[in-house]
Amino acid sequence: MRLDKYLCEAMDVTRAWAKKIIKSGEVSIDGAPCKNAATHVADDSVVKYQEQTLSVIGIRYIMMNKPEDTLCSNADNELYPSVLSLLEVDKVDRLHIAGRLDADTTGLILITDDGQWSHRIASPKHVCEKTYLAELAEEMSPEQQQQAIETFAQGIMLNGEDKPTEPAKLKFLADDYAELIITEGRYHQVKRMFAAIGNKVTFLHRCQIGALELDESLEPGEWRYLTEAEVNLF
Ligand code: URA
Fold first, then answer.
1. What are the distances in angstroms from CA 158 to CA 32, 161, 185?
2. How many CA atoms within 13 Å lie on the side-chain side of 9?
3. Which residue from 69, 109, 180, 188 has its CB within 8 A of the most atoms of ligand 1, so it is best to mutate?
4. 65: which strand partners?
5. CB–CB of 199/138 below 8 Å?
6. What is the per-residue pLDDT across 113-136, written as a single tens digit (0 to 9) for each?
7. How far is the CA of 143 from the centre of ligand 1 (A)?
8. Which member of 11, 23, 180, 181 has the greatest number of CB atoms within 10 A?
9. In the CATH hierarchy, which fold is given to the domain comprising 61-225?
10. Is the pTM of this model over 0.85?
11. How far is the CA of 233 from the centre of ligand 1 (A)?
C-alpha cells in the first residue's frame, strides 16, 4: 500500500492531509523518515507518526452464528439489536452483512467490508446456493412431501410476485423437518415458499452458503474470522 493511502486508513485523514503530514518529515517507515507519499509500505513494515506506531485494518471476513432476535442491519431498532453489536472490533461501521436473515432466523451470516465479495454471495446475478433447515407446523405425508419436492424443483409463484422462484432442492429429514437449498434471496423466501404449499415454518436456520458450512463450534452469537481458503470459496 502507498504511504499516503496507509496514513488515510490508519489516521482517518484525507489524501491531501496525509501528503502534508508526510512532507512535514514526521512519518517514518522502519525507523527511517520518509517524505515520499508514493513509497510502498510492506505488510511487515512499522510506520510511525511523531513516534506513534500506526496500524491499518485490513479487509475483514467474518462468519457468525446469528442468534434469534437480532437484526441483519447496521443499526438496532426498538425491538432488537443489530448483529454487528455482537462484534468487538474497530470500525464496525465499515462492515456490512452479505445476505440477510430475518430477526427470528438463526445460523450462518457473513460479515465483511469487501463489497465485491459480498456481491458475489448476495447478488441474484451470481448463483450461490443457500441451505436452510426448516421446522414445519404441519407434518406432511409421503405423498405431500413428494408433491412439495416437485413443486419446489419446478419453481413456485409467491404471493404478489410475477415470476416463479428458481428451482430449489427440498429434502425431508422428518415429516415436519426439511432441508431446502435455494439460490435466491427474496423477501422471507423460505417462509413464503412453505406458506404457498399450505404449511408454516416455525423455526428456520441457515447452515450453509455455497460450499461454506457454519462452524459447529460457534454457539449462537459467536463469530470468527474466515480462513483464506474459506474467503476464496466465493
Ligand atoms: N427465508 C426466510 O423466509 N427467512 C430468512 O431469514 C431467510 C430465508
1. 64, 6, 13
2. 14
3. 188
4. 108
5. yes
6. 999 999 999 988 889 999 999 999
7. 25
8. 180
9. Pseudouridine synthase (3.30.2350)
10. no
11. 22
User: Which residues contact ligand 1 via a Cβ below 6 A?
Assistant: 101-102, 105, 188-191, 204
pLDDT score of 51: 85
Tell me which of 176 and 1 has the higher pLDDT: 176
Q: How far is the CA of 109 from the centre of ligand 1 (A)?
A: 12
Q: How far apart are CA 189 and CA 12, in angstroms?
A: 40
**Where are the chain's structural domains?**
3-54, 61-225
d(CA 130, CA 227) in angstroms, rounded, equals 20
- For residues 130 and 209, the answer to whether their CB atoms sit within 8 Å is yes
DSSP per residue, 72-137: SSSS--SS--BGGGG---S-GGG-EESS---TT-EEEEEEES-HHHHHHHH-TTS---EEEEEEES
CATH code linked to domain 3-54: 3.10.290.10
pLDDT tens per residue across span 165-224: 999 999 999 999 999 999 999 999 999 999 999 999 999 999 999 999 999 999 999 999
Average pLDDT of every residue of the chain:
95
